[in-house]
Amino acid sequence: MNSVSTQPSAAGKGSVWIETLPLLALPALVILFQTRVPAWMFMWGLSFAIFAGLKWMTWWKARTRVAHSAGRSIAYLVAWPGMDAEAFLYIGKRPARPKAREWLWATLKASLGVALVWMVARRIPEQQSLLRGWIGLFGLIFMLHFGSFHLIALFWQTVGVEAQPIMSKPILSKTLSEFWGKRWNLGFRQLAHDLIFRPLHKRVGVATAGLLVFVASGLIHDLVISLPARGGYGFPTGYFVLQGLGVTLERSTLGRRLGLQKGPVAWIFLLIVTAAPAFWLFHPPFVLRVILPFMRAVHAL
């Protein structure tokens, strides 16, 4: 299709409601059906509704900034899980074609996720239901975020679209800041930077704006985790507030003195802060009432 480029107009600037309406309407519509569908179905529906609303916002903001085709816009909205709208839409840059080993690595990660969900979890004794659920949950994360989303990124790179994997080898992180800022779920990181950090950091300061990003992430996770589970409220938000406080400490003068910005102490701090309280994020009500029923629905148990 031919390239098109739109310039901002007074009408466009006054149409904030068009930008935000899907984010308000879609989750509200799903919530209306909360008691009529299984908890796992409500969780997926609410997650997709929030994702679609945020996706629309990123596209709406980017549509006037870069030259792009209508086909590229449709592909971004329906066939790319990332939130890097300007990079994806821009038709003036072609990334290098991915190598065969990248395809293999992404396929292996997706396959590991499949194995965890449909093979490993069912071998855990039924009495250890929490362990079963956590294994299945991490299998889903590997299958989707690490594997399938990586494969989708490689496909778009192959056809000449700038689409970087959402997960950027988080296991190689050396500090807490690197983990959350450069390697883990870069789709949300891009979104949070554009919608929260960039508008606020000059008003409230870098540290406070960064902490607000974590608070927003926690509230969103509480919405899609605790609300479907009807329990565990506040734990996901508490988890992300802890991450934000950890990043703030790491970047402070005290953090530098404690060795939190590099070296083995920084890596141990990263591991303790992210992994030790992980049960706050994926708390037992969510695992027992949402994940396990979903695994039974897809015949994983």
Topology:
Layout: H1 10-13, H2 16-32, H3 39-62, H4 70-79, H5 85-89, H6 100-120, H7 129-158, H8 176-183, H9 186-204, H10 206-229, H11 235-251, H12 253-258, H13 263-275, H14 278-281, H15 284-297
Helix pairs in contact: 2-3, 3-10, 3-15, 6-7, 7-15, 9-10, 10-11, 10-15
Structure notes:
It is a single chain. By secondary structure, the chain is mostly helical. It folds into three domains: about 15-90, no CATH class; about 95-160; about 175-285, no CATH class. About 70% of the residues lie in helices and about 0% in strands. It has 15 helices and no strands. It has helices spanning about 10-15, 15-30, 40-60, 70-80, 85-90, 100-120, 130-160, 175-185, 185-205, 205-230, 235-250, 255-260, 265-275, 280, 285-295. The longest helix is centred in the middle third of the chain and has 30 residues, at about 130-160.
Q: Low-confidence parts lasting 5 or more residues at pLDDT below 50? A: 1-11
User: What structural class should be given to the helix and strand makeup?
Assistant: mainly alpha
> What is the residue-averaged pLDDT?
92
**Gyration radius, rounded:** 20 Å
Q: How many DSSP-defined strands?
A: 0
Q: Helices and strands, in N-to-C order?
A: HHHHHHHHHHHHHHH
How far apart lie the N and C ends? Answer: 47 Å
How many discrete domains? Answer: 3
The shape, in one word, is globular
**Residues in β-strands, percent:** under 5%
Oligomer: single chain
Number of helices: 15
The largest pleated sheet is described as: none
The helical percent reads: over 70%
